[in-house]
Design a protein that fits this description.
With about 675 residues, this protein is mostly helical. α11 crosses α12. The longest helix has about 45 residues. It is globular and about 90 Å long.
Length: about 675
């Protein structure tokens, strides 16, 4: 298929008149390959059905003879069918991945949005074969037969209790669990845990193989994972603990209240650069960058707290810049993606997102408690400085814990693992027996295109930001733009909350902190609802578009058009905007993890870094907007900052509509 794409590109270079012929011919070739895949799937399912029928006859004969010694052999026979079904599902998954890669390559080579046309015309047709590549055909019936018979054979005393009467009796057999996981990947069905894992945007290599997990086991250490999650939690607390008091701190140092945007945003400015050098540093070590991060954050928070007694807004800003330079979220993400075994990776990813969400809620809540006012050794401790002192102490404790408990992974294992994985892929080893390769990516074509693949360095990690940008398809760019938009809208809402609520409602610092903490506490419940229900009821792209529209509605409701501006209007509109943005973030990152190139799953310039940079840049722009809007006066601050949010949101909705059919 890749060779044909190259030939089509040459034909179009010769004459534009060949474009229509190329599109029709490529559609025909692709239809034929997909049909071949689906028919092969149906044929293999027929063989599995015949084997299950034979096993059923053996079981009936066994029940009449009451021969308990033959039960283990019969159970193993059912498990063998399950293992073959698992290999068959892996075959379908490889073809689905191959189809995505071929469509991406065709769009890139031809310079035409063929994916939009092909998916739109095939996916919605009643006789579409394309649906069968991404959905399972009759697999549920086979799984049901396997589960029912294995449960009945386990309880061979004939208690007459069926799994249909008591679903809790479903057998937790490893083969059945593996099949269910494979079916979930094909149907895009998801659980709360999987949804949170995707939320972390830890991009997997599309052709990852499980045997290499043995090497990862040698690099994994539970306490080191806990330390990475603790780092994530503390950093999010550090980010949001100063939000309720940033305006009052700025006023106490002789600056305008709206300078709080610069104070909050300076941390994000530094994070734009720290994410890159921490990601590069993690190629050689995890321990050293984490220690450096803790020391820098300790110094940054100390400077932030001392700025009050030094009466210097510049020391305050330098302190926040240091805090941003200590952002190790790129390290935390990469440790999970490269040092945690595959069987635990989803749980670790969910832990990363949960730690971030809890830190976001805990920061403002903690600020509401730090309301003391006293001096010690001529150093002032009050509501403005206590957040800095508290975080400095927290990072000091974390630094000692890190030095005592963190275990540096062996980087030799990392290299050997990647080499072994590449060798397995090059040799075509996918499973022992059964289906061993995808029809869309046949071994013959791989051998024919080997030189082309080497020249394109398709299996190498990205080494520069320019190379990373070239791998971004229009759909990925739109998803990153959506991520920018939602982070911009959330940052405007959170960063200016203390100024807005004090001006309109005369809220105290404690009231603002409680309000922000309540918003933060909605993150996990919202993810439960989306991950457990919405993602199973609707396609992710449908949820993506709907949540953008709700964000737009929330922004519109936030405008100060009615006098007086009331607390119910502000709180309800903020809740709608924030919750919709959280829903949007989860679905957006989930789609990104699926459409992003596998080359962005490793190396310095990985998918996690790109999303982090997009979100951080959005925060910088949002905080700068708040400060600039302050020049028009606090009475106009709300509307002036909401206009860009509304404009960007509308642009995202339009862009999503244009790339809607490529989001699959």
């Amino acid at each position: 298929m890749k060779k044909k794409v190259k030939q089509y590109a040459r034909q179009i270079e010769i004459s534009e008149l060949n474009r229509e012929y190329v599109l029709k011919d490529f559609s025909r070739v692709l239809d034929k390959q997909i049909e071949k895949t689906v028919l092969f799937l149906l044929e293999q399912e027929g063989h599995l059905g015949s084997r299950l029928s034979n096993l059923g006859e053996r079981r009936d004969a066994l029940s009449q003879q009451s021969d308990a010694w033959s039960i283990p052999d019969l159970q193993e026979g059912y498990r063998d069918v399950g293992r073959d079904l698992l290999r068959l599902l892996h075959f379908v998954e490889l073809n689905a991945i191959g189809l995505r890669k071929i469509l991406k390559k065709f769009d890139k080579r031809i310079g035409y949005k063929f994916t939009n046309y092909y998916v739109k015309t095939r996916a919605n047709h009643p006789y579409s074969q394309l649906k069968q590549v991404f959905k399972h055909v009759g697999v549920s019936a086979v799984v049901g037969t396997l589960t029912r018979n294995l449960v009945d054979l386990q309880d061979h005393h004939e208690s007459f209790v069926s799994i249909y009467d008591q679903p809790a009796l479903s057998l937790p057999d490893p083969v059945i669990e593996s099949i269910k996981a494979a079916v979930d990947r094909l149907t895009n069905s998801t659980s709360f845990l999987q949804y949170l894992g995707k939320h972390a945007l830890i991009v997997e290599d599309e052709f990852t193989t499980t045997p290499s997990d043995d090497d990862v086991e040698g690099r994994y250490d539970f306490m080191s994972l806990v330390l990475n999650l603790a780092n994530t939690f503390l950093y999010m607390v550090n980010t949001y603990i100063i939000v309720p008091t940033a305006d009052s701190y700025s006023l106490s140092l002789g600056a305008a209240a709206t300078v709080c945007g610069v104070v909050i945003g300076s941390m994000a400015v530094a994070q734009v650069f720290s994410s890159v050098y921490f990601s590069a540093w993690s190629n050689k070590s995890y321990m050293k960058p984490l220690v450096f991060s803790s020391v820098v954050l300790l110094v940054g928070n100390t400077l932030y707290a001392l700025a009050y007694d030094l009466n210097s807004i510049y020391v305050l800003l330098i302190g926040r810049l240091f805090c941003g330079l200590g952002s190790a979220r790129a390290i935390n993400r990469r440790y999970i993606s490269e040092c945690v075994p595959l069987k635990l990776r989803m749980k670790a990813s969910a832990g990363f997102v949960s730690a971030s969400a809890l830190g976001m809620a805990f920061g403002p809540a903690l600020a509401s408690l730090l309301q003391a006012n006293f001096q010690m050794f001529k150093v002032t401790f009050n509501k403005d400085t206590l957040p800095g002192w508290f975080m400095a102490f927290a990072w000091l404790i974390y630094l000692f814990w890190l030095c005592l408990s963190f275990r540096e992974p062996c980087f030799d294992l990392k290299v050997n693992s990647s080499l072994q994985t590449n060798n397995r892929l090059e040799n075509g080893v996918i499973g022992n027996g059964g289906v061993s390769e995808a029809l869309l990516l046949s071994t013959t074509e791989k051998q024919q295109d080997k030189d082309e693949e080497d020249s394109e360095e398709s299996e190498k990690a990205v080494t520069s930001i320019v190379c990373a940008y070239k791998l971004l398809t229009p759909s990925i760019k739109v998803q990153l733009f959506i991520y920018f938009m939602l982070k911009y809208a959330m940052e405007v809402l959170l960063a200016e909350s203390s100024v807005i609520t004090e001006y309109y409602f005369i809220w105290s610092t404690s009231n603002v902190a409680i309000f922000l903490a309540c918003l933060g506490l909605t993150v996990l419940p919202v993810n439960v609802i989306v991950g457990s229900y919405l993602s199973n009821m609707f396609e992710e792209r449908q949820v993506l578009l709907a949540s953008q529209i709700v964000v737009c509605i929330g922004i519109l409701l936030s405008f100060h058009l009615i006098i007086p501006y009331s607390v119910p209007q502000y709180v309800s509109s903020a809740l709608v905007t924030f919750v919709a943005a959280e829903v949007l973030e989860g679905v957006n990152l989930s789609l990104l993890s699926r459409v992003m190139s596998s080359r962005l799953s490793r190396g310095t310039y990985n998918g996690g870094l790109l999303s982090t940079e997009a979100g951080t840049l959005a925060r910088v722009v949002a905080d700068g907007t708040i400060t600039l809007a302050g020049y028009w006066g606090i009475n106009k601050l709300l509307n002036v900052t909401l206009v860009p949010s509304l404009f960007i949101c509308v642009c995202c909705i339009v862009a999503t509509c244009f790339t809607y059919n490529s989001l699959y």
